[in-house]
Amino acid sequence: xxxxxxxxxxxxxxxxxxxxxxxxxxxxxxxxxxxxxxxxxxxxxxxxxxxxxxxxxxxxxxxxxxxxxxxxxxxxxxxxxxxxxxxxxxxxxxxxxxxxxxx
Amino acid sequence: xxxxxxxxxxxxxxxxxxxxxxxxxxxxxxxxxxxxxxxxxxxxxxxxxxxxxxxxxxxxxxxxxxxxxxxxxxxxxxxxxxxxxxxxxxxxxxxxxxxxxxxxxxxxxxxxxxxxxxxxxxxxxxxxxxxxxxxxxxxxxxxxxxxxxxxxxxxxxxxxxxxx
Lengths: 103, 164
Known about the structure:
heterodimer, A: alpha+beta, Alpha-Beta Plaits, two-stranded antiparallel ribbon, globular, B: alpha/beta, TIM Barrel, five-stranded parallel β-sheet, two-stranded parallel sheet, 5 helices
């Protein structure tokens, strides 16, 4: 996923704010079912979010309605969906989100 | 085939690629949106609450589609659009920014438009028509909203986002 403006996706406060925004859109039960978690920050405003299998479509849809994170106008875009982090890193590299020599 | 989108501003090529679109057309440069066809030399989408204006516009060659406004779409206008091979455009960018209470009403209206187009065999196309970067959606998100609009009581989702 990517944010519309640069944010520090490595910070816990940002991760919590994104989780709160997604929870507001998915509902408490939906959020518990999906159990999303930011697992890797891959660029200036990009990160990989892990979600329970079967809930990825719900997460993508919920992310479309996130327009505000911690009072700041920010939206989320889904850049790719995959079952493996490696594939997502390849996608990030091909889109120049990630530097070529990123481990 | 990668989908297309239409936005109200110029979206950079890098961002278009990251969002997963083959191309995001701009209403400032590529496609014009107006309340009636005006003989413009660029492809036009006519957006109006007036069924008469939409029916008239559907006949014009430079009009590529219509965008029915209002809670109740005009079936007559959609039928004429289908007859002349025009596309029914459903903008969703503003929908994603509305409050929860408003969303149900807007979703109901979009569903009516979509199912009217489907039953009258008109081509329906869901676009973001984003006014700002905050209203932009990725291809995956647009598809998710398309599924939300077009799925009802187990009916399969249909998304067609081609602009000819």
